[in-house]
User: Fold these one by one.
Assistant:
Number 1:
Amino acid sequence: MFPTELNTCKMKNEALYNYVLRLGDDSLILGQRLGEWCGHGPILEEDIAMTNISLDLIGQAMSLLDYAGELDGQGKDHDALAFLRFENEYRNALLVEQLNGDFANTMMRQFLFDAFRKPLYEKLTASSDVQIAAIAEKSLKETRYHLKHTSEWIIRLGDGTDESHQRAQKALDLLWRYTDELFSETEQDLKLISLGIVPSMSEIKDQWSKTVMSVLEEATLVIPTNNWQFEGGRRGIHSEHFGYLLSDLQYMQRAYPNMKW
Amino acid sequence: MVSKETILSLLDEVYDPEIPVLSLADLGVLRGVEYVNNEWHITITPTYSGCPAMKTMEDDILLKLKDHGIQAKVHLVLSPAWTTDWLSQSGREKLKEFGIAPPEDEVDKSVLFSKPTIVPCPKCGSRETKMVSQFGSTACKAHYQCLSCLEPYDYFKCLK
């Protein structure tokens, strides 16, 4: 290869690594959060549903982080990336690391995320990068089930009793401030967009808004008028909750390096 | 050297650890068997991304072949993504006999605006059944109950 070509290839890999790492970290951290419900669900069916969704997310994280490791070329697999990075090296959005709170809060967080992931995976199935396209094709089928499940709950809770309505509205008021970050784009992403590897986030946001608006309307919930937004997770700057989550997630590998069972 | 047919018939004896009546071929998880560079390469695909049975299936394949003195490697592919269309006809019948309702050819759209897919009871055949939960005992199943004989059962949910 000519030096310029090699350079382009290296830049592309680095950009793609960062992109895939973000996707993988979102899945991993949200999967970990949802897993905290195991044995604590409000009803047995929901306990099983949340852990099923968690399992899908962690499975997607394995594929995504394996691919990130491959692009990085330093021999790291999904375990190395999941268990052996420091807090500021994770690139998940702040939304997914937020505490579970009550059931309404967990469902709202999941709904806002699923409504983002579904159109994103739909677009990524057409990626010019075959591995991204394959992971998206697989994950999309699972994500459709997740979005259906959470949409239903948002409607049921929002348009339910006074108590459930109040809690769902409170969750929306709390979590809305973390939604813009999902659609942030870096300089490197623009390169990937121009190469047809990833879609532009404005397209995804349009579809997200459509889904979110129609479900929230059906649920009689109101989008907060204060649109103050937080960001940071995509740059490795996380909320205080994140350290506690990581200490749970990483405990075994940190206490007993390389342990297996 | 053993033939591909031998390998395939050996793999017919490797079952889904969660649904022990289904072979990997019935399930549609087995994608390919090839002999390259003095080694057998077996390709499988996951039903769901996080299916914890995949690792067991991989180990079971290697163990089965090793028992017959055959060295092999197992590879995981994601595309084309597995759907319930990959489930064989005999697999569907075995599921039903086992007490699990096989996938109807329709993705459940019940959430929000339409009625759930009708899944006949695998025990009594009644069509008077209800979905208890979209998510069941494993990633690939939903939880149903028969309203006629009251049997609770798993539905191997349709994935397209």
Number 2:
Amino acid sequence: MTEANLARDAWLELRRNPKFLVSGVLILLIVVIAIAPQRFTSILPYDCSLSEHFLGRPSPGHPFGFDTLGCDYYTRVLYGARTSVSIGLLTVIGATLIAAVGGSISGYYGGVIDTVVTRVTDVWFAIPTILGGIVLLSALRRRGIGEVALVLTALGWPAMLRLMRSAVLSAAQADYVNAARALGAGDLRIMRRHILPNAIAPVVVYATIFVGIAISAEAALTFLGIGLQPPAISWGLQLEAAEDRLLTAPHLLLFPGLFLSATIFSFILMGDALRDAFDPKLR
Amino acid sequence: MRRYAGRRLLQLVPVFFGATFLIYAMMFALPGDPIRALFGERPIPESAVSILRERYHLDDPLPVQYGKYISGVLRGDLGEDFRGREVAQIVAERFPVTLRLTGIAFVFELVLGLLAGLVAALRRGSFLDSLVLVSTTAVISIPVFVLGYTAQLVVGVELGWLPVAGIRDGWPSYVLPGMVLGATSLAYVARLVRASLAENLRADYIRTATAKGLSRRRVVGRHALRNSLIPVVTFLGTDLGTLMGGAIITEGVFNVPGIGRAIFDAVGQQENPVVVGIVTLLVIAFMVSSLIVDLCYALLDPRIRYD
Amino acid sequence: MRHKGHRVGVVLVAVALAVSACGGGQRSGEGAPLAQGGEFSVFICEPRGLTPGNANQSCSSEVLTALFSQLVEYDTANTENPVLMGEDAPRGHAASITSRDQQTWTITLKDGWTFHDGTPVTAQSYVDAWNYGAYAQNNASFFANIEGFVGLQCGRGAAGELDCDASPPISERMSGLRAADERTIEVRLSAPFSQFPLTLGYAAFYPLPEAFYADPEAFNTAPIGDGPFKMDGTWIHNQSVRVTRYTGYAGKPANAAAVNFQIYASIETAFTDLRAGNLDIIDRTPRAQIPTAAERLDGRFAEFPGSGWTYLGFPTYDPRFADPNLRKAFSMAIDREALTRTVKPDSVPADSFVSPVVSGYREGACGEWCEFNPDRARQLFEQAGGWQGELVLWFNSDGDHATWMEAIGNQLRQHLGIQDIRFEPLLFAELLDRERDKGINGPFRSAWAMDYPSPQNYLQPVFGTGGSSNYTYYSNPAFDAALQQGNAAGTISDGLDFYHQAEDLLIQDMPAIPLFFDVWATSWSERVDNVFVDPFEHVNKADIVVK
């Protein structure tokens, strides 16, 4: 019964929180755009005319103007949402899975397993993200959405696992866990019914924020030239192209920059809202 | 305390070997032949290639290569790059630059972050609080390179207040890139201080202190702040490592010849010794700083010591 | 009379005082008062090295051309004789270069030239330097023509035979090279080569002082050359290299008193620095800035022709690309003019396989095959059977090629209807490996910059059978024969007819599509004048005037 109360309380709290409402709407909008960009634009992203529309300014029918290849920028920015959101979600799902499994086992069983897992986590944690990203991505010949998400997962799971592990550690101390064990409940059942639901809250909060971080990291790595490659459509690539033309064609920077920042912002805000809801001390 | 410190130090050893081996292995997996690339489009005399491959142990299996390398490192020899320059030399030239850059970023984020977080926590729920919250979130959301180029153009070129690129002007040239580098971390620090301080201000002992008649300033400054700084110290410790790694973008934008840029160029040229050498040092720096953080943590919070 | 003379005397004394005040101070080192002429700064990227034998990169050679003198100078506008020496070359060290059979050459040096450390530049300085360069250095291939070169590359096998995988090499000196006396070098080539004098301007052929052999590492950070400028201090990695005027120079002296080479990791940052007044010359204006540079800089911008040439090669060993009509269709579907107007403004469309800076270039040689004509392209494409499946476009990811390659992909999609297009951007090292292993399965971007201004240098290494940079693996005996004839011709200009024949064969077969010729988009500050960048991408540092 404990888990239902926490979730229900959180939901009631969230419903009234403006942060949640604003970020919720934004995220919904972005996800819809990511899933079905065709609903928002009838132009195809590769339908470009270099000779006619190179760096064209915003005009009727083309609200965001054109980019360096003469492609309709509005279409390209919308399709870029799909790439960024996919990478963000894939990364976080992957990292959370690893963190959930590893963190639970490590935190619950303790002992040698815990030491080993902690050491391995420390080793990966010691490698700075951008650095590790550069080295790992340079080794990959083809860098599509899957590959980039994989690399970001590989760099992101240590932080998540640590979080999960400490949450599990504190949840495992609770009296009701001891009681359950005394009553003869198996380890798996205890983990599933008692520990996980209570430990998951901080992880969910961080995971939400981590979507934003992952999207930002992909943009940075792509900007450095080591992330996604053309002909992929990504905000990172669009920003990379925009950098030398800040004064001559500011619309190149403005639109993907806005969308990227807004997307990251909405996930972080959502994370904030969730943290407010889950943490009783901040009420 | 000494036992705690000793134990932590011992834990660093396997992490050190693990991390450096991981990096070395990743570089080893890079495709292409770096020696041939040195000659560019020209035909290559075979004698030169075999001499160079011999010199850099490129034909040995991975564990052997790593073994030779790490034994060199422990003797203080970080190897040479493919042009014969000692990696240690490269590091010696570049590290101080990055250190200065990181230093400025650090001071910037510490001072302003603390201030902003303090203000926000003390005026909880007010306009100022919301302003700090929204602006820090916005700063975190804007990618570093966007921030960097915009700052460079607006402040450096158009307004001409600060040097634009390079480090020729001494300390002033580090200001702008330092601020850009520290901006995101500043936002994190501010939020952390705000959350932590707000939480502590509601604690019982604060209520007691206020009830006992202590002035607001004493309550906040002496009690609440000190306890609130614990998560901040933790963050700052790990942030040092992040800053040095993340300086790559900032160093590129502002043409600061530090190690971040060195790594990026070395990866492109597949200069394994340079990459591994610099990353090894960064890993050490990171581990040392987290060790210091843990020790400070233990000092600040007496509950931890008896772990 | 005496009265007037007295006044004149006063004026003369005053002038003398003024002049000596301006021109005082011959001390070297930073912060010392400069000799007359002023100082300016030039953009460079971080050099790989500053030893002539190893410097095959523009960052290195920009510095080395200030520190060293060439044997010959070039006048590429002159089709009869583009090579200058003797009195026609005030900064060239060769007095004359003669040969009777195009195989044995005699190079006579001018008198009185010295290195920056005061030692004389003799024929032996050249001979020793060339032997050193031929022995396992990056630029060794330049000496490949010289008899005895093979001995420096190959060792002895088990049975005493020549084995080019064996080490150590048989010899350290080329048998065909010797110093007949203090001022005469004798070179015997392994085969007649009419273009030989043309090759001598390259950095590989610089002389080296005795001091080099004593400590090559120190030399690499502070080279001692024989050019109009000498080192001031050492090379400060990733920051700068500073040189000052060499007062003992026997050639035409430099105008400026000092040059500061500022090293940048990114051209964007360098250009921003120029606009902020911290850099004087950059010969690589960022593409995005080129359209507005002239206006923004009040006309202090120019596009100097470069010798570089970019092409899209076909792997002729892949049967799908065997039909020349298919290759020509690709060529005509590409709108070079639109590309150079928009995403690649640091070039002009290529209309031949040979660069315009070279005597022997024929304008429009490629004809209709290099002109944008989507209808005709479509026609030829269908005639050749079209294209099925995935088309992969290859290029190196560590250049700035992604955007315009993507644009070409879009053009092929738009005009030929090829929908399934993918890109394969690899690190330069890896792309080179694949090219050498015949592992490319689609059109690949490649480029060539001349070592010396001859059409032969554009044709033989890139398209000749067994050429050192022939990655299309094009092999045509008629083409090779024409090149041989050109090489054996009596004079440089006689050779040109044969080279034209060879180029015509290329145009018919089109194993590669000529895309662009480089231009050096150069911007400079208000402080300098008389800026010029030669086709080798060398700024004319010795002739620049500081205002």
